[in-house]
Write a structure and sequence with these properties.
The complex is a heterodimer.
Chain A: H1 10-18, H2 22-44, H3 47-64, H4 75-93, H5 107-110, H6 119-129, H7 134-146, H8 150-157, H9 161-180
Chain B: H1 7-16, H2 21-33, H3 35-54, H4 64-73, H5 81-107, E1 130-134, E2 143-148, E3 153-158, E4 167-175, E5 181-185, E6 193-196, E7 205-213, E8 226-231, E9 233-234
Antiparallel strand pairs in B: 1-2, 1-9, 2-3, 3-6, 4-5, 4-7, 7-8
Helix pairs in contact in B: 1-3, 2-3
The chains are: A mainly alpha, B alpha+beta.
Chain lengths: 181, 238
């Protein structure tokens, strides 16, 4: 039954999961659950909610594994997207009541943590983020990592929502120019 | 508001999660119409993904994996698998009988739309807490439901509905005197499906099927005629 070894690439585990290979799915869980749980917990800020969300996310992965297209991005970002989207959706629905403000992320602490394939991309992203205005950078990180809404970002910086929107746009445009350039 | 919003910045905010609910809806509609916008979304996901991957890992509690395994299997009750299997088998048998009679009823009518429907598989009916037979005014059933409280899975087995490509059948859950809540559209009028739904107490639950524009009601409430309805009843456990 188990045709996928413990060190199989995640792409292969997802492909086998799409074929309803439970052993591969278990392997996929073992390899990615700490990453996805970290994402969920950070955005939801509550373990019970993160537990439920984790179940939803992996049930979704089980059902939609055949929708993963290896040609369009790496498997961990596909999984992370599913987790982030679900967590943000729950957080918005709860009106962010349950989600406490998270400590700001120190970018430097993110670098060097991973020795994986993404560390190079992360270094590039970090270099571009560090060139942004500090407020713009803080907004992008708080939105992405903590799932904060525009209103929460406005409260964070004590600025009107409209200002936040234009800062986000400026920050994102600059980030793109830096990354793609 | 303005159509002039740069789609690339909208895509970025969509990925970031900072669009308002309205803007998000509008963006999703745009995404459905303009395939090139999907490419913008994809690029932003890839640009920002290293951040998600770099966020600190947290080990999930050990009891989560068994829960997930259960959720994907439609399991029997963990503490009494024997009783669960027996119950599942009994429900499956009851549904096969009902489905068969439903098909017989349908094929006895003229004109027959599509010759006796392909046998509807009910072998996946698992542990079930509650069932409902939905019919027009208490007559011959057109749809069967079997609900498993543990997994929140609702088996939907149509037996007497006609496909119409211009319309969708939408299933609604009505709790007591509350407003109907959509459980989703039936992909086709002939295919058994499984929906995830939370029926959170044992109060009076009625399911109903309405005829909606293709894709389902746009308003979040039934807009077309209700063609089937039925009460959810608990299955005795002994």
């Amino acid at each position: 039954m188990a045709t996928t070894a413990a060190d199989s690439p995640l792409e292969d585990l997802i492909a086998a999961t799409a074929a309803e290979d439970r052993a591969a799915f278990a392997q996929l869980y073992r390899r990615t659950s700490a990453k996805l749980y970290g994402i969920l917990l950070r955005i939801l800020g509550d373990r019970a909610q993160a537990d439920d969300a984790m179940q939803d996310v992996f049930v979704r992965v089980w059902r939609s594994a055949n929708g993963y297209d290896a040609g369009r991005g790496n498997p961990i970002s596909w999984l992370a997207t599913i987790a982030r989207n679900h967590a943000i959706d729950l957080r918005r629905r709860a009106g962010a009541r349950g989600a406490g403000r998270q400590a700001d992320v120190e970018l430097d602490t993110l670098i060097d943590r991973e020795g994986g394939a993404s560390s190079e991309q992360l270094a590039a992203l970090n270099a571009c983020l560090s060139r942004l205005e500090p407020d713009q950078r803080a907004l992008i990180l708080a939105a992405y990592l903590n799932g904060e809404s525009r209103e929460e970002l406005a409260a964070r910086l004590d600025r009107p929502v409209g200002t936040i929107k234009s800062w986000l746009h400026r920050g994102l445009a600059a980030l793109k120019a830096c990354l793609d350039g | 508001m303005a159509e002039a919003v740069d789609p690339d910045l909208e895509a970025a905010e969509f990925v970031l999660g900072t669009l308002s609910a309205d803007e998000r809806q509008a963006f999703l509609r745009r995404l459905a119409r303009e395939p090139e916008v999907a490419t913008l979304v994809h690029r932003w996901r890839e640009r920002l993904a290293p951040l998600a991957v770099a966020a600190p890992d947290v080990e999930p509690p050990a009891e989560l994996w068994p829960r997930i395994e259960q959720a994907i299997e439609g399991p029997v009750a963990a503490n009494d698998p024997g009783a669960g299997r027996w119950k599942a088998a009994a429900i499956a048998a009851a549904l096969v009988a009902a489905v068969t009679s439903g098909v017989a009823w349908q094929s006895s009518r003229a004109p027959v739309p599509t010759a006796p429907a392909a046998p509807i598989k009910v072998t996946t009916v698992s542990a079930t807490d509650s069932v409902a037979a939905l019919s027009p005014d208490g007559k011959t059933p057109g749809l069967f439901l079997a609900y498993d409280r543990d997994t929140g899975k609702l088996q939907v087995i149509p037996v007497g509905l006609e496909d119409d490509p211009a319309k969708s059948f939408e299933l609604w859950l009505i709790k007591g005197a509350g407003a109907p809540k959509s459980v989703g559209t039936l992909a086709t009028a002939r295919t058994a499906t499984v929906k995830s739904v939370k029926v959170d107490d044992r109060g009076d639950i009625v399911f109903a099927v309405s005829v909606e524009p293709a894709g389902g009601s746009k308003t979040g409430a039934p807009t077309g005629p209700v063609v089937l309805s039925g009460k959810l009843v608990d299955v005795p456990t002994t």
